[in-house]
Specification:
binds flavin-adenine dinucleotide; Acyl-CoA dehydrogenase family protein; Acyl-CoA_Oxase/DH_mid-dom_sf; flavoprotein; AcylCo_DH-like_C
């Protein structure tokens, strides 16, 4: 029976190296360098390129990809063990070539792209020399894609796109956008949209503004509010088949959600480490914070939450490896997606609180962690929608009863058991 929590010794050695490398070489970049997606930042490039070279030499570059795309093909379980380390650092995913949203964009280009599309867009993306943007959500609709309005019409040998997109992450740094647009309004909702590759320099692409998260200063955001005004791309810039937009989006989001969850383990552990350090370092009148029962309770609760979540993520990663089909693991991915923001939010909030005023200040990153937890509850679909997915999938495995009382009704069960065992039970036996 295969049920093993050990990591194979050679990979465990790699992970030890990653721990040390991320702590010593990469985490310092988080507090001095700008945005990892800005490939024009020469100062960052000069520091990061040699680190990326080291990662390649260790065979850990783009670990989310198979060998045919230049990755080691470790599978999701090994990737999870790596990503939970990378999740501690803002820069680490880019240093290791597996940063979202580029990783998800690369995945759909690899699965649905033509040879030409792969050469022009996928190769430089995998190489780490360009950034990309996934442009699907609209200002008036996000969670429900059937309400999207951005449209594309076929004109000669071009597609012409019109519409607005909201929260298109990294639009300002992207070399190309993957844009979902309605192409067949009369078709069934899930066949009515298609996916297009739009080079950033195409006339008619306008970033109305860059929206930031709550803790970011105005003007520093990287979530583009983008207008597409008569944007013309050649017909060969359709990704997949006409009407495939929804299927492609699902493929992209399945992997993306799990990869976010893997990194969230690392982020929550980082908050947890800070909580424990604070508890052991700060005095109250009666002694260290760590000696107080209420503090111990928070530490225990946080540890349990992180470990429970980690097991759910690892099992889901293992299932993806086993089935190699996100559809078969839909429920598990949705469960991970629902659990993720709560774990990070709970642990970050406790840590923030234990740090007192310092905790809410801009000298620690706990406020950012809490906002990021809320972000994880929205990006790739809000929690409520994923709960519906889980409930529907679970309920599909159950049957209603036709009887007045439920199947667990004790008097009914007792009666049935007495009848079944009538020949072996002593005469006149009564269970009551
Ligand atoms: C940091 C971040 C990065 C993002 N990056 C991208 C990106 O790169 N590209 C992109 O296209 N999009 C991106 N998004 C957008 C994201 O996909 C949407 O925010 C998400 O799908 C929700 O859509 P919405 O914001 O329009 O919220 P709405 O759809 O308006 O939903 C708002 C709330 O309404 C409730 N709700 C909605 N539908 C239901 C339902 N069926 N049942 C119960 N309650 C419901 C939920 O409480 C939900 O949180 C990003 C979002 C964030 C926060």
């Amino acid at each position: 029976m295969a049920w093993d929590f050990e990591v194979d010794p050679r990979y465990a050695e790699q992970l030890d190296w990653v721990e040390e490398f991320v702590r010593d070489e990469v985490e310092p970049l988080d507090v001095v360098l700008g945005n990892p997606y800005d490939k024009t930042d020469e100062v960052a490039n000069a520091i990061v390129h040699p680190l990326q070279k080291t990662v390649r030499e260790r065979g850990l570059w783009a670990a989310h990809l198979g060998p045919e795309l230049g990755g080691p093909g470790y599978g999701q379980l090994k990737l999870a063990l790596l990503n939970e380390i990378l999740g501690r650092s803002r820069w680490a995913p880019s240093v290791f070539g597996c940063q979202a949203p580029d990783s998800g964009n690369a995945e759909i280009l690899a699965r649905f792209g033509t040879a030409d599309q792969k050469e022009r867009y996928l190769e430089p993306l995998l190489d780490g020399s360009i950034s990309s943007c996934y442009s699907m959500t609209e200002p008036q609709a996000g969670a429900d894609p059937t309400l999207f309005r951005a449209a594309a019409r076929l004109e000669g040998d071009s597609w012409v796109l019109n519409g607005e997109k909201w929260f298109s992450t990294n639009a300002r740094y992207a070399a190309f956008f993957l844009v979902m647009a309605v192409t067949d309004p009369g078709a069934a909702p899930h066949r009515s949209m298609s996916m297009f590759i739009v080079p950033a320099e195409t006339p008619g692409v306008e970033i109305i503004r860059n929206v930031g998260l709550g803790y970011e200063p105005a003007g520093h955001g990287s979530h583009g509010y983008v207008r597409y005004d008569e944007v013309r791309v050649p017909v060969d810039h359709l990704l997949g088949e006409r009407g495939d937009g929804f299927v492609i989006a699902q493929t992209r989001l399945g992997g993306g959600r799990v990869h976010h969850a893997m990194r969230t383990i690392g982020r929550a552990r980082k908050a947890f480490d800070a909580m424990c350090e604070r508890a052991l370092s700060r005095d109250v009148r009666t002694g260290r914070l760590a000696t107080l029962g209420v503090v111990q309770e928070q530490i225990a609760e946080s540890w349990i939450q992180i470990e429970q979540f980690r097991l759910l993520v690892m099992r889901t990663a293992w299932l993806i490896d086993k089935h190699n089909d996100y559809k078969k693991v839909r429920r598990d991915i949705a469960a991970v997606k629902v659990a993720m923001p709560k774990v990070l939010s709970d642990v970050a909030r406790r840590t923030l609180h234990l740090h007192g005023a310092l905790g809410v200040s801009n000298e620690m990153d706990f406020v950012a962690m809490m906002v990021d937890a809320e972000m994880l509850a929205l990006a790739d679909g809000p929690t409520e929608v994923h709960r519906v997915t889980i409930a529907r999938d679970v309920l599909a495995g159950y049957q209603p009863v036709e009887t007045l009382f439920p199947s667990g009704h004790l008097p009914t069960r007792r009666e049935a058991a007495l009848q079944k065992l009538a020949t072996v039970l002593p005469g006149g036996f009564s269970a009551s």
